[in-house]
Design brief:
By secondary structure, the chain is α/β, with parallel strands linked by helices. Helices cover 61% and strands 8% of the residues. This is N-acetylglucosaminylphosphatidylinositol deacetylase.
């Protein structure tokens, strides 16, 4: 009876042992899957929180809306500072959490202890590689019959005096990556740090943008257009010619309407002239152009005109003619007293194609400055693609490297009167 009992207990204990191993294995699998799921959830949440924090910081670092200013008056300075501190805390915590989750996923670890063990293992592997390399070099030196101790001393002295070629090679590999990280960080810092200084306008102003050819609005004025339309102003585009130099005038006029819609301007607010006196590339009569521009200012009830300066950004004489017409109207007293005239600054050639890096040289030099946002740059690229008849390879480079895609600096050539007396608008201008 005792033998039977022993045999029975043995047969029962074996399955229990196997089932225990099976349970342990299942627990390990479940733990691994759970850790991966948790890291995915935490990483996604941290990324979403980081993006929301950046968006909030971006919104409050740009020119505030009128509604935001009205709401801000309800809070004290301490509350406003607390909100800014909260946004900064959210960005810092979420960014650090995302970094930790990314490193842990890369190392395939789930706990701080595993992380430390992984780092120790990586360090030991590097030490083993170095020691193995030394042993190989010593064996080679023994085979050649040299003095091992002298060779080792010389190697130590050489390492002290000059860095090893392997370390230099590793540093050379890391240098492009570090340079790329620095450039990206500096670009993001520029986008967040540089603020716009808009031109002084009444709420819901009517602005006339005077250009020489279709595509000038996209290539040179897109940051200003996007900022004005986003602020609730109505922008009209008056193109003096339709760019019919190659016989594509009608096509380019339609492209101008499509590009304007990409920038936030209604196609009904786009005017493209086709007069024999103002052919693309010809010399334009400033007095005739002056009369046409002032007539459109009156018909459209525009209170602001924006155009090129005397050089015309690119040196094109049609661009300069737009400025000459406005300057003639102002000098002859043809500009209403309640109308402001602003011109786009021309800059040296070496600054024109350094992209947003020109913010280091432009910021603070002009009284009025517009810095494009990420979505403004994307809108400019879409608008430039609308000018398909003119989209050649060098224009693709232009919209990537031109500073006029990222920023505009303007100056006023028509001083604002202290007491505007024009009959259509007797209200004083408010400076923001």
């Amino acid at each position: 009876m005792g033998d039977v009992t022993t045999t029975t207990s043995t047969t029962i204990s074996q399955p229990s042992t196997l089932s225990g191993h099976a349970l342990v294995t299942l627990d390990k699998i479940d733990t691994s899957n759970t850790a991966g799921f948790v890291k995915t959830v935490i990483g996604g949440t941290s990324l979403a929180t980081l993006l929301l924090g950046i968006r909030s910081a971006w919104k409050h670092s740009r020119q505030p809306e009128a509604a935001d200013l009205a709401a801000a008056q309800l809070f004290s300075g301490a509350a406003f500072a607390g909100k800014a501190l909260g946004v900064a805390t959210v960005i810092t915590v979420s960014g650090f959490t995302l970094l930790i989750v990314g490193v842990s996923a890369l190392l395939q670890v789930n706990t701080p202890r595993q992380f430390g063990a992984a780092m120790k293992t990586a360090h030991l592997r590097s030490l083993l590689k170095v020691s193995k390399r030394r042993r190989v070099s010593l064996k080679r030196s023994r085979k050649t019959g040299g003095n091992c101790q002298k060779i080792e001393k010389n190697q130590v002295l050489q390492r002290l005096l000059n860095p090893s070629s392997s370390s230099l090679h590793q540093h050379n590999k890391m240098l492009p990556l570090l340079l790329l990280i620095f450039i990206l960080f500096f670009v993001i810092l520029l986008f967040f740090a540089v603020r716009s200084y808009p031109i002084p306008l009444l709420p819901q102003s009517r602005i006339l943008l005077l250009i020489a050819h279709p595509d000038d609005e996209t290539m040179f004025f897109s940051p200003t257009i996007r900022a004005l339309t986003h602020a609730g102003h109505r922008v009209f585009i008056l193109s003096v010619s339709n760019g019919n130099f190659d016989g594509l005038g009608e096509i380019r006029a339609r492209e101008l309407s499509r590009a304007a819609s990409k920038l936030g301007i209604s196609s009904s607010d786009v005017i493209c002239l086709d007069y024999d006196e103002f052919r693309d590339g010809d010399t334009w009569n400033r007095n005739a152009l002056c009369q046409i521009v002032m007539r459109h200012v009156e018909v459209l009830s525009a209170d602001t005109v924006i155009s090129f300066d005397s050089y015309g950004v690119s040196g094109h004489h049609n661009h300069s003619s737009c400025f000459d017409a406005l300057q003639t109207a102002y000098s002859n007293g043809g500009v209403p007293r309640d109308v402001q005239i602003f011109v786009l600054d021309s800059i040296p050639l070496w600054r024109k194609y350094i992209g947003m890096w020109d913010a280091l040289f432009s910021f603070g030099r002009s009284p009025f400055f517009y810095m494009a946002r990420f979505r403004d740059v994307a809108a400019c690229w879409r608008a430039m693609w609308a000018h398909r008849s003119q989209f050649v390879w060098f224009r693709a480079l232009f919209i990537v490297f031109s500073r006029y895609v990222y920023m505009n600096s303007l100056r006023r050539i028509s001083p604002l009167p202290l007491t505007p007396s024009a009959p259509r608008n007797s209200q004083k201008f408010k400076f923001h």
